[in-house]
Write a structure and sequence with these properties.
heterodimer; A: mainly alpha; 3-stranded mixed β-sheet; 70% helix; globular; B: alpha+beta; 4-stranded antiparallel β-sheet
Amino acid sequence: MQLYLPIAELPVNMLLILGMGLAIGFISGMFGVGGGFLLTPLLIFIGIPPAIAVASVSGQIAASSLSGTLSYWRKNAVDPKLVGVLLIGSVFGTAGGVAAFSLLRREGQLDLFIALSYVTLLGGIGMLMVVESLRAIARSRSGEPPKLPPARDRRVGTGLPFVMHFPRSRITVSAIPVVAIGLGIGFLGSIMGIGGGFLLVPALVYLLRVSTAVVIGTSSLQTLVTMLMAVVFHAATNASVDVVLALLLMIGGVVGAQFGARTSLSMKGEELRLLLGLVVLAVGMRFLIDLVVRPDDPFSNTVLEWVVRV
Amino acid sequence: MSRVLIVIAALLAVTPARAETMVTSLSTHRLQITSNFVGSEIVLFGSIERDAQTISRPGGYDMAVVVRGPRALMVTRQKTRVFGIWVNTDSRQFVEMPSFYALLSNKPAADLADLELRARQQIGVDSITAITPRLGPDPVATPAFRDALLRINRAKGLYRENPTGVTFLTPNLFRANIPVVPNTPVGSFEVDIFLMSGGVILARESTNFEVTKTGFEAFVANAARDHGILYGLAAAMLALFTGWAASVVFRRD
């Protein structure tokens, strides 16, 4: 079933896109991540121009993170105050990311930047996840009880100015590192076509020491708002959001996520993290291989601008 | 007697009388892209009209149909290895390149005419003019970029030659199927039709057709181009609606 994409200007197999959305949605529901880091490379691989893949995936991530956010919101597991402060950084990060995206595309270095970011971030995070989950599995095998979180508020970076208290997250922290994290996630997310959940969750847990009870919900809400901004910014600057592509991905994604979430209930947390770590690491390796191995054709063509276009 | 005939024939051949004319017609001048578009074809019909004085061409007629899509500024980039990874290091821009090019003929381009004529009339992929405004640090390398540009567009199906693309139905009636590829650029396409014989152009006709998006596709593309912010807000609303609908449909708690 072929369907013509009005912005990408090429026909795609509708069932293939729906199936990809479904598969990535399954993984995202299973691990509680957006899945953008898998979906964007897959779309580029089947021939969607990178600019359109990145911008359209933002819409898909927004849709799937809204269903996540709503269910966490009902369970009272979101810290809106923390999200508010993170967003101060994200607004500028996202706008900067979209602007850098246009510039890099014009200079022909976008693919390189995306590949390098994927290799470093996915490689690093994937490695951390694998090591951490293997340790956790070893610990549970040896019968040691898991470390319980301390019951009182944690204080991070309180030597810096603008110290704030976040009762839901049970932290007292300077606003500066929070805004900086928002800035970084917004920038990388809009350039790489990822929600950044797999970056934000470890940052919240290990850097800000946010209570684990609200970390996923908070990350979901933050991802939702950042990706909505990314969609609007990409549409306004690059006109690269393909709604038809985005809608197909959304439908596949939200349905797949439900089945993924059900499957994950039957698995242990550390096993899930190990599996996700391996998937993340594999995607990073794939990009590394592309960077290092001699390309089939060292030349490539790009249309810079049309002479006249009706 | 036969010698006299040969002399007369030779004299007639020398006279510049362009005795042949062509009448051509495209099956459509406006190809509309709808949601189920997977590529298409436009049929060109033509007949060769000869008046009473026209001599017969010993080699028969040749046809070359050149189709060119909307022009664009293109850049070809070259990767080289820097610190172990492959990076775009050099590039050349080419101005006014056709985004689509097809040569349809009844024999290979090389047999139609000599190189000079083909280059002048842009007959054949290898004859497409590619002008670089800036030669870059290494002017000698530019031909390699030009070759790569043509090679890659050929591989994508955007530049193509079909030496059996023109069919003669009768000696004076011909038909050519102009391909419109699935990843076709959108815009105005020029069609140049050359009637040739023995490496010489006898007559030339030009026409054009338009490839446009229609209906929903046109609406979406225009909105994205002309009202970027509104379009982005609409896309964001769509994402919110889909996510909300999913959470209602699949709600279990």
